[in-house]
Design a protein that fits this description.
The protein is α+β, with helices and mostly antiparallel strands and about 350 residues long. The chain has three domains: about 120 residues, Serine Threonine Protein Phosphatase 5, Tetratricopeptide repeat (Alpha Horseshoe); about 110 residues, Sandwich (Immunoglobulin-like); about 100 residues. The protein is built from nine helices and nine strands. Strands 1, 2, 3, 4, 5, 6 and 9 form a seven-stranded antiparallel β-sheet that branches. A hairpin with a 5-residue loop joins strand 5 and strand 6.
């Protein structure tokens, strides 16, 4: 018959009454678990077993965190081994492993019979797990990002990473694995580029080599680049920064205008100053002068409007543009080098999807 020791009941009730409801639920379970564990460690199994069974019972009225339930299952199974109930112990060990494949027994704290029952439970249940990604800062030139995954027993294990904003998943580990193991990532994508900032998924897929059962799990994390100071490229050279490459074009319209003005003046003078008595010859001469002036202006325009290249200026402009282009290429390369050497800041991310 199960019975709750008076002292444990009083402790649980006192904690519950003194705490807010939400906190009391967790504290009450924790207090009862501490009491049960102390009984177990003192080999008072007759008192430990009812308390442990009460915590894992569906009728337990208080909240039980996953870690608390796993601990209760583990100590319950260990106690059952000591009282000779090995089959039940294997079932409870399996229940602990199914909820947390990282569960393990320290051979220095548990007996060979307990570790043997635990090994039997590991062979019975198959599950994979991944610890939440730890916040870390990694210089990918010298450091690596580490993930911890686990399988309950020997399995063909695959671990993938996927940048959720774009891109397919790529493997970071493939091989046989048993128990907990560390998976290392160099912070680079398969094309050897630095991982882009954003949200990532770590996907763990395992297939049991004992039963062919499969299981998978996933966790999420964020990648950020530690700010690198980048240089601005130099602007393109404007016309004001370049030398003129053609000569004579500026004076051509002026020469044509001078010819037109002279022609107009000659015609005006011939019409106002020269009288009718002088006859039409003088007016004709003025027209000749005007025509010559227009022709001279046009000739000057055509002469000055010819495209005269200035080789020295052209060469100087090419040199300036080349120097600017080389300078910008060097700036872009320095910026690329700084980005390639950026430090990655890794932080865990909540959620079950992108």
């Amino acid at each position: 018959m199960r019975r709750l020791p008076t002292c444990a009941g009083l402790v649980a009730l006192a904690v519950w009454l003194a705490s807010p409801p939400a906190a009391a639920a967790q504290d009450t379970t924790a207090a009862l678990l501490r009491t049960a564990r102390s009984y177990y460690e003192g080999l008072d199994l007759e008192r430990a077993l009812p308390l442990l069974r009460q915590i894992v019972s569906p009728q337990w009225p208080f909240g039980v965190a996953t870690a608390q339930r796993v601990e209760a299952y583990t100590y319950l199974a260990a106690a059952l081994v000591l009282v000779g109930q090995r089959d039940s112990a294997v079932s409870y060990f399996a229940a602990a492993l199914a909820r947390d494949p990282f569960t393990d027994l320290d051979p220095l704290q548990f007996t060979p019979a307990q570790t043997a029952a635990f090994a039997a439970a590991r062979a019975r249940v198959f599950a994979v797990a991944a610890r939440p990604v730890a916040a870390t800062r990694a210089d990918v030139r010298t450091e690596r990002i580490r993930f911890t995954v686990a399988t309950t027993h020997t399995a063909a294990l695959q671990v993938f990473l996927q940048f959720l904003e774009a891109g397919d998943a790529f493997p970071v580990f493939r091989g046989e694995s048993e128990g907990a193991r560390e998976v290392v990532w160099d912070g680079l994508t398969p094309d050897r580029r630095l991982a882009a900032p954003g949200r990532y998924m770590l996907l763990v897929v395992g297939r049991s080599l004992l039963s062919a059962r499969t299981d998978s799990t996933r966790v999420f994390f964020l990648v950020a680049h530690e700010a690198a100071t980048l240089e601005d490229t130099l602007p393109d050279l404007g016309r004001a920064a370049l030398l003129p490459e053609r000569a004579g074009t500026a004076g051509a319209p002026r020469e044509l205008a001078k010819g037109v003005i002279v022609a107009a003046g000659a015609l005006l003078v011939s019409g106002v100053v020269v009288s009718r008595e002088l006859g039409g010859g003088e007016r004709g001469g003025a027209r000749v002068v005007a025509g010559i002036a227009v022709v001279a202006g046009a000739a000057g325009f055509l002469t000055l409007n010819r495209r005269h290249d200035l080789p020295g200026n052209i060469q100087a402009n090419l040199q300036r543009e080349t120097e600017r282009r080389v300078a910008n290429q060097a700036i872009r390369q320095r910026n690329a080098d700084r980005l390639a050497q950026a430090v990655l800041n890794i932080t865990p991310a909540a959620g079950v999807g992108p």
